[in-house]
Structures are given as C-alpha cells and as structure tokens.
Amino acid sequence: MIKERIENNELTVGTWQQIASPEISGILASQNFDWICLDAEHGVFELSDIRDCCQAIQNKGNACFVRLPACDPIWVRRSLDAGIDGLIIPMVHSEEIARTAVKYAKYPPLGERGYGFSLANTFGLSFDDYAAQANDRIPLIAQIEHIDAVNNIDSILAVDGIDGVIIGPYDLSGSMGIVGQMDHPKLKDACDTVLKQCLAAGKVSGIHCVSEDKSYLNEAIEKGYRFIAYGMDTVFLSDKRN
C-alpha cells in the first residue's frame, strides 16, 4: 500500500502524466514506477478522464495519484470517488490551505468529506470497508510551490492529515524571481529548508525532477527525498535530439 510506504519514509519514484489517455496511463504504469500522478492542474484532464486513466493504472497493479487543479471541494470529492490512491494539492502556501485540504479530503472526524456510493466503494458493495479505511489508506500530499510555503513549512507539516510534501521547483523558482533556474543557489537553499523540516517533522519530503536528466533524480535520492516524481509523459515524448 502506497500510504504505508510513504509513512515509513521508503523511497518511491513516480512520474507525471499530462495527456488524458488511458493507453498512456497503462504504458507508464507498466514501467518501473511506484506511482503515476495524473496532472489535472496543467494537463488536459476532465473528471471523466481521471476515472478511466486511474483504472488503467490500477489494472497494472500501480498506484494512481491526482494533482488537482486547485484545492477545490468538487475536484477533491469526485477524484476520490473515482477510486484514486492518493491526492496532491497544488499551491499549498499556508497552514490554512493545508487544513482546508484535509477538511475536503478526509472523512469525519478528521475532515468533512461526504459519504456516498461511488466507484471507490464499488457503488456500495464495499462501502463499509472503504469508509473505515480511506482516511488511513489514501495519502494527502501538499505541493510546495511558493517561497511563502517555504517560510510556512513548519506549520504546514504540523497539520494532522498532511502526510508529506512535494516541491514544485518551477513555480517555486518563479516566486523567487529566478524562474526555471534549477541550479540557482537560492532555489537549492529553499528546497534544502523544506527537506530539513520534513526530516525533523517525520514526514516524507518529495520533489519533481522534471528533466529526463537522471543526474537530478540521483541527486534528489542522495539528498534524502523519498517521494520523487521523475519526468512526465510529455517530456518523454518530446524529441530532444539535435
């Protein structure tokens, strides 16, 4: 179970999917990734695509995350009802946003997620089991994408129900006036701050290594990141040859 691996701070490496194709989902899920994240923020996903791509990923025995377009109650509820294995909430800049994410994503008493028959509980056939286990089974990851989030990282990590964080380096660099400069010392210092505080809080720290260059992936592993996204379908498909 992916939540157990995250709680144990085991290394997991996943990838991002931006193209809403179950066929691509199946191909990615057949590779040596621990999870696939459907990117509903910058990708082309509708809610119906989440269901189809999630099933394609799970049919290969892999875990399906969704990076939501926003901390939106409808997207949270309907993505969870589609049976996904984990949620990534973008642009979590503050403790308040983190608490709102927990409120939307977790059943009472931790949150206010609504109960109902859905694909996630086989339209009621496994309702009792799903309702009893969902809070403990589905990880909730806050995405750190702004310097304000770095400055508030302690309070974000302290929110009960947030299982860890993943750094979005492009947005983070943009908020610092150094957009896209992945090797800039200021960006590296900000990322190191997040990593250090995650280790102190006992929660998993992640980062998205967007480039296909495996040196970034290897560096992230060596530094101690344990929830790492490597590349994305659109990057893998791009012809980078000279």
Summarize the structure.
With 242 residues, the protein is an alpha/beta fold.
Plain-language structure description:
There is one protein chain. The chain has 242 residues and is α/β, with parallel strands linked by helices. The protein has a domain at 2-141 and 209-237: TIM Barrel (Alpha-Beta Barrel), CATH 3.20.20. The protein has 12 helices and 8 strands. The chain has an 8-stranded parallel β-barrel with strand order 1-2-3-4-5-6-7-8, surrounded by 6 helices. Strand 7, helix 11 (214-223) and strand 8 form a beta-alpha-beta unit. Helix 2 runs parallel beside helix 3. The longest helix is centred in the last third of the chain and has 17 residues, at 185-201. It is globular, with a radius of gyration of 17 Å. The N and C termini lie far apart (42 Å). The relative contact order is 0.14.
